[in-house]
Prior knowledge:
The chain is an alpha/beta fold and about 180 residues long. Helices cover about 40% and strands about 20% of the residues. It has a single domain (about 5-175), classed as Rossmann fold, CATH 3.40.50. Strands 3-2-4-5-1-6-7 form a seven-stranded mixed sheet, with helices on both faces. Helix 3 runs parallel beside helix 5 (about 105-120), helix 4 (about 85-95) packs antiparallel against helix 5 (about 105-120) and helix 5 (about 105-120) packs parallel to helix 6 (about 140-160). The radius of gyration is 16 Å and the shape is globular.
Amino acid sequence: MPTRTLVLGGTRSGKSRHAEDLLPADEPVRYVATARARADDPEWSARIDAHRARRPAAWSTLEGVDVAAVVRAGGGPLLVDDLATWLTGVLDDAGAWEAPSVPPAVGAAVDELVTAIERAPGRVVLVSAEVGLGVVPATRAGRLFRDELGALNAALAAVCDEVVLLVAGLPLRLK
């Protein structure tokens, strides 16, 4: 059984459901939810609520946490969903959207996470979006996000035992 699994996919590809199905529903799992709630966006809140509602009762949800620290701490199976929203928060916190170049804090956070995953003491399943298969974004922010997420996904794929790409709900094993 793989120790570290990266599940990639596009929007509504089934990546989160697939990742959840890799872990036992009747045993304790720590679920790190990286999406930041926004009181001014009811549609986003509904998406977060839908993800919360489908998690098994035996699982515990961690929100607003340092993902790398949770990985390093160990403590049983861990699912992180998803790294695209985690990276968005890192870019937000670093002021990357307006900066002329990517702030060093972004690279430091990515390196810290990748190192934690590489050294993870237990089972870790990661979910991330694959955004590099389509049109080149028209905005600098879109290109920044696409490029940084592509680099993050590649770095994680290099340290994971298994990498799966979900396309139209179908898992394709890449590694």
